[in-house]
Design a protein that fits this description.
The protein has helices spanning about 15-30, 70-75, 80-90, 95-110, 125-130, 145-155, 160-165, 175-180, 200-205, 240-250, 270-275, 280, 295-300, 320-325, 355-370, 370-390, 390-405, 415-420, 430-435, 440-450, 455-479; strands spanning about 1-5, 35-40, 55-60, 110-115, 135-140, 170-175, 190-195, 225-230, 255-260, 285-290, 305-310, 330-335, 350. With about 475 residues, the protein is of the alpha/beta class. It is globular, with a radius of gyration of 25 Å. Residues about 205-220 and about 430-445 have low confidence and may be disordered.
């Protein structure tokens, strides 16, 4: 079977677990004898944060997803063309991406299209192009895609289109939380929950070939050693770990607890600066930066606890499950996706990650109850093995779904092209709603907005405006 994976970003551009998950499944299915091609976006040099895969056929055919570059966003945040493109990228059609995907489908003729994250590629256009191809389609949901699309499709009235496209596609959700989140705009033809995976076979047999030396716990780690690894950003709760470290530094336990943070991200520079300024906190909290996975796991072998004060809207959370796989007890926010796997007998749950008193008290409990932690991690590992083992659980479930897929009916690609033409820049409606004009027109914007917000009458005006735009473009094509 030939499989075409479609992902908005792919190594060397890595933002989190989504694209790493796509890479792992592509590799696994290739090892299982299938032909695999990955379609993704070009990677700007500033976003290359991960080794490029050399064992997978990756086609970087889509426009760069530059909207995740904070500096780029800030520079162009007031530019009307950029705002139009970003709105299309997250809630509409990007014509060049639709054409690139169509050409790749014609060239490779895959048996299965496996969509991972379409955000930033023009998600409505990606799904429309795939459904028009008459292929078997599967979408892997590891994020609240509907939530983002819902926010952006309102500008172009694509919500009904998105809902209709979903009816043609079978979905896999990485957690029950994500299953429910992606029912905002219609429902998929079928939606199954399969938790994200870890490769127990690889963890047992993989040898570390690096020259990274890990110091003995007896010689250096005399304190209770707490680790966090993952993205260094606000959603992952890094600032709360910093505040917790300040609390520990001011307590009698500062010589008994050591916290280490591994990773990279938006708040990495902020964290370094704060630690440079506060030497007392620096005695408790160490920022180690980014390490490749093999070296990271080697470094984590002597950890006593892994701390993950993640945001409650975290879709799943690979890092906590990986920590459990490596035998590290975890403290985890209660309502994240992967928390569905565990009970109070397996992990220490955080109710409110912003409550530093709660974090401190639970950390002290862990320090004083290390034998209890040992029994908890044993139970947690059994749970992960039963639900997340790649070879014995995940792949068989995925294969069962794939075997039941049916091709879509398909239709002409000209339909997608005509939709793209209709939505080309500039759109008066977009400028009206998002104030993309020069500041001199702000008073006019307010007046127009107040008129369009009048119940029923405003809706009538919008419809008349759309008809005028369609008529103008039709007459322009004839001429």
């Amino acid at each position: 079977m030939k499989i075409l994976f479609v992902s908005n970003v792919f190594p060397p551009h890595v933002r989190g677990g989504y694209e790493i998950g796509c890479l792992e499944l592509a590799r696994q299915y290739q090892l299982n004898g299938h032909s695999v091609v990955v379609a993704s976006s070009e990677v700007p040099p500033s976003l290359r944060t991960y080794p490029s895969p050399t064992d997978i056929d990756v086609r970087y055919v889509f426009l760069p997803v530059k909207y995740y570059d904070a500096a780029y966003n800030k520079q162009f945040e007031q530019n009307s063309v950029y705002i139009y493109e970003r709105t299309m990228a997250f809630g509409g059609y990007l014509e060049s991406n639709c054409i690139a995907l169509q050409r790749l489908l014609e060239l490779e003729d895959p048996d299965l299209i496996w969509i991972f994250n379409p955000l930033g590629l023009g998600p409505v256009g990606v799904l429309d192009t795939c459904v028009s191809s008459g292929k078997k389609i599967l979408i892997h949901l590891m994020d609240d895609i509907d939530g983002v699309v819902s926010d952006y499709t309102k500008v172009f009235n694509f919500q009904n289109k998105w809902s209709l496209l979903k009816q043609e596609i079978v979905a896999i959700s990485c957690s029950k939380k994500i299953f429910l989140a992606n029912n905002k705009i219609g429902k998929f033809n079928r939606n199954e929950t399969i938790y994200n995976w870890v490769d127990f076979t690889k963890s047992r047999h993989e040898k570390d070939t690096t020259d990274f030396k890990v110091e003995s716990k007896k010689s250096i780690f005399k304190r209770f050693r707490v680790v966090y690894f993952g993205q260094i950003n606000a959603k992952k709760g890094v600032m709360f770990i910093y505040e917790l470290s300040k609390r520990i530094a001011a307590s009698s336990l500062k010589s008994q607890i050591l916290i280490e943070i591994y990773g990279s991200g938006d708040l990495a520079e902020w964290l370094r600066n704060e630690l440079d300024k506060d030497k007392e906190v620096n005695e408790v909290l160490k920022f180690k930066g980014f390490l490749e996975k093999a070296r990271l796991f080697k470094r984590l072998e002597e950890a006593d606890l892994a701390l993950f004060p993640l945001s409650k809207d975290e879709p799943f959370g690979y890092a906590p499950v990986e920590a459990v796989m490596k035998g590290i007890p975890i403290m985890l926010t209660k309502e994240v996706g992967c928390s569905e796997l565990f009970t109070d007998e397996e992990v220490i749950f955080i109710q409110d990650r912003s409550d530093i008193d709660e974090l401190y008290e639970k950390l002290v409990w862990c320090l004083e109850n290390q034998k209890r932690l040992a029994s908890m991690i044993f139970n947690a590992q059994e749970t992960v093995r039963e639900n997340c083992d790649l070879s014995t659980v995940t792949i068989p479930k995925l294969n069962e779904i794939i075997s039941s897929l049916k091709p879509t009916d398909g239709y002409g690609f000209e339909h997608i092209l005509s939709t793209c033409e209709l939505c080309r820049y500039p759109l008066p409606n977009l400028e009206k709603r998002y104030r993309l004009w020069n500041p001199r027109y702000r008073l006019a914007d307010l007046i127009f907005d107040s008129i369009y917000n009048i119940p029923f009458f405003g809706f009538f005006l919008e419809k008349q405006e759309e008809k005028l735009v369609r008529y103008y473009k039709a007459m322009h094509r004839k001429s």
